[in-house]
């Protein structure tokens, strides 16, 4: 399999980490949504977005949530990172939604600050996004403070997505974590980044 994108993208990184954790071999094909936008639209994803996972038979899957669903199906319910049903599944999906939602807002704030001419930057929008990021991180922090894992008794997609979100926000919106520290989430990040599955996907800043 080939994973198209860059690990600086939290959406690409959570797929890469998941592939590593599940023992599914792949090669990273480095493409940027900025520098390679037209190529991505023409050859991989009409939206020009990453990640794209190219399966061994050439089929292309887009959007990280859909890709992760396929990976869990591939390895079966006993190894899947998202539980198959019931309250555990709902809990993991809720935490994952908060993590990816925080990433969405971090991207929005970052683009507002860096892609517009300074005279057109709308700072109230940046602050609104940061407020939303802070709310999501506080919820993740509360879960992280309860024990070793965010949901249940082992590593799930909730932990993967939360750590990836924390690390991404620390890079693109560090002011949020400075203003509202998340020590338990930071400790979870440090612990999981010590695993090879995470270390191999360190963001390429």
TrEMBL record:
Coiled coil: none
Residue ranges of every copy of the GST N-terminal domain listed in the record: 1-79
Sorted UniProt keywords: Transferase
InterPro entries, per database record: Glutathione-S-Trfase_C_sf, Glutathione_S-Trfase, Glutathione_S-Trfase_N, Thioredoxin-like_sf
Record GO terms (molecular function): transferase activity
NADP listed as a keyword: no
Family annotation (CDD domains): GST_N_family
Claim: Transferase is one of the keywords in the record: yes
Family matches, as PANTHER family: GLUTATHIONE S-TRANSFERASE GSTA, GLUTATHIONE S-TRANSFERASE-RELATED
Protein's UniProt name: Glutathione S-transferase
Organism: Roseospirillum parvum
